[in-house]
What does this fold into?
Amino acid sequence: MPVQKASATLADPAFTIPPVPTGGPSAGINWLRRHVARFANGAEHDRRRLQVTSILATVDLAGLRRLAAEHTRAVLDDADGRPVDLMAQVARVVPIDVLVAALGAPSVRASAVAVAAKAYQPGSGPEEPADEAVRELVEAFGGTPDESVAAKIALLVQACDATAGLVGNAALAMLRADTNRPVETIVAETLLQDPPVRMTRRLAAKTGTVVAVDLATSGLPFGAGPHQCPGRDHATAITIGILESVEGYQLTDLNINYEPSTALRIPAKLVIVR
Ligand code: HEM
It folds into this structure.
């Protein structure tokens, strides 16, 4: 697949979002893809994006940061000195839990969001469990599979892997370093030096081919153009909150493996101890 420069491609209307598959159950992963801003173009994208940004605008960023710090502290306190896998017990759970609290949908399970997120990009993961997870998420948001429910599910699904990766990569930078830099600085540096979302795709109108767009070396960790991440401030607030509670902990193993993915860079496991 040809690789394009992010800054030029993402703002160019000649490069659009590739079409998503048709078919599937009435409230499954294909339904989700066909009803969210992420996979839409033009006026349809504008309308759905407005739904997402309107929801995000109601969320108090300082509150999100505080809640993320509190949830993380609770997980670490519960461990009572035993080692904790920061990825499984914090990075993959806390961001979703605090967003769910902010959206006022207490019955949403972070594990259902994770299963849907695995298959969100067409071809990235198993569809059947994702169909079941999306069905569960539609029920949790009232049961009607419409665009406004899709927007809420999309927020959680989009946040899931990307924020887990940001938390993991920033925690690694913080815990490996021997300096006491502010967590805000560590997160800002991680976004430029070790971003969690490495690439995206666009359809080139001229040739009809799908191209890979490099985000890892572009200095655009949240993308650019009409689909630029609307959750940037939320993701940053949550990550900073989590890191505040992890300060002072140590990694038990400096040998880090990453989840198998070309588009995402997410540590598979980060075991920490007081
Ligand atoms: C609270 C956490 C997050 C939320 C709610 C969120 C939400 C979203 C949404 C709704 C979109 C689709 C926007 C559209 O198509 O118009 C999006 C796109 C995107 N997000 Fe996020 N996101 C979050 C975290 C992150 C993080 C941590 C990163 C990476 C540092 C990230 C990187 C991106 C990128 C690169 C895109 C654009 C993809 C493309 O243009 O193909 N997001 N995000």
